[in-house]
Amino acid sequence: MLNNIQILRALAALAVVMFHVIGISKVYGLSTSLVRIEGWGDCGVDVFFVISGFVMVYTQDRKHRTASEFFKERLLRIVPIYWLLTFAMIALLFVVPAAFRDDDRGLLHIVSSLLFVAGVALDRMPVLYVGWSLEYELLFYTLFAVGLIFTRRRYAFLFPILALIVAVLLGWSRPIALEFACGMMVAKAYQSGRFRIGLPLAMVGAALLCVTMVWRPDIDRLLLSGVPAVLLVYGALHMRQLASKWLVYLGGASYSIYLVQVFTIPAFYKFSSRYLDAVPVDLLAAAAFVSTAVFGCLVYRYVELPMTARLKKIAAGDGVLAVKT
After folding, report:
1. Which terminus of the chain has fewer Cβ atoms in its 10 Å neighbourhood, N or C?
2. pTM, whole model, 2 decimals?
């Protein structure tokens, strides 16, 4: 994987964590100085979507997977840890319901969350609320897999893009879904070797995202955050690849970090509201941010990686004997 893309994943995940730290701190009546940028940080999801579109095309052109191989690989990548943490949340809801402000989790909500259709079926956030973005991811993976049924690579590339455009035009999906299509086109532009503009484009994209800290015009998210994310990703691809091992590792752990914040940030503020009243609120926010990143890395290292590796072996038929013994 290109180092700069991994680093952008890390920064995107951390931006979303900051977004939720600010929001949840306000829920507990602890308005930090970061409240000035309240609402900023969700742009990390837009960066994720563009990267996802890019990576699917980039890796497919290298691996040449069939539709079933591609879809199975994607499911093994995103489903196990998401289901595990969803079940952990459900268990907490049953064991300590008083700890949750909203404990209305019926069977239909749980099932639809596990199937990545809570938004479509119930117009609700899934049990693990950050999973709303994964529902878009799975939609994209499904369309991408269907496109791979076509034998001509041009059709395989165009199908998910056109399908996403139709879905948005018919109101079946929000315009944010088009960010996957933008990422796919970024991959083709990158592979063509043309328009090798690196640092200037990345700086423009980053600047436009930073501007939204203080000014958020009333325009669709696709334009507000999606277009800058495209510029940032495309520019990063053509820049010198950075060699920061820590940031690259955080990029690898970004999925776990993104998911565990649902647990860590509220838990941190519940604990601090009881036992850390004297600690400055800005320091609490920093501690919630860092602890989420650290815990996400631990989950990545000791849960996500070994579980995914094991399931891949089983899916490939290599782990059957080991499982029996």
Report:
1. C
2. 0.93
Give pLDDT < 70 ranges for the chain: 1, 98-104, 318-325
Q: Is 325 helix (H, G, I), strand (E, B) or coil?
A: coil
CA distances, 114 to each of 48, 126, 148, 202, 304 (Å): 21, 8, 25, 36, 17
Structure tokens given for 113: 């969350």
Q: Where are the domains of the chain?
A: 3-252
Nearest one of 120, 126, 114, 140 to 60, comparing CA atoms: 140
Classify residue 217 by burial, with Cβ atoms within 10 Å: 0-12, 13-18, 19+.
Answer: exposed
> Both tokens of residue 61?
């052109």
C-beta separation of 253 from 212 below 8 A: no
Q: Which residues lie below 8 Å from residue 226, measured CB to CB, with a gap of 6+?
A: 46, 49, 50, 175, 176, 178, 179, 182
**Which helix or strand (DSSP H or E) is residue 51 part of?**
helix 43-63
- The region that residue 181 occupies, defined by phi over 0 for left and psi between -120 and 50 for alpha, beta otherwise, is alpha
Contact 18, 38 (CB under 8 A): no
User: What is the spatial distance between Cα 234 and Cα 198, in angstroms, rounded to a whole number?
Assistant: 7
Whether the CB-CB separation of 282 and 148 falls below 8 Å is answered with: no
Say how far apart CA 199 and CA 176 lie, in whole Å. Answer: 25
Q: What is the pLDDT of residue 28?
A: 85
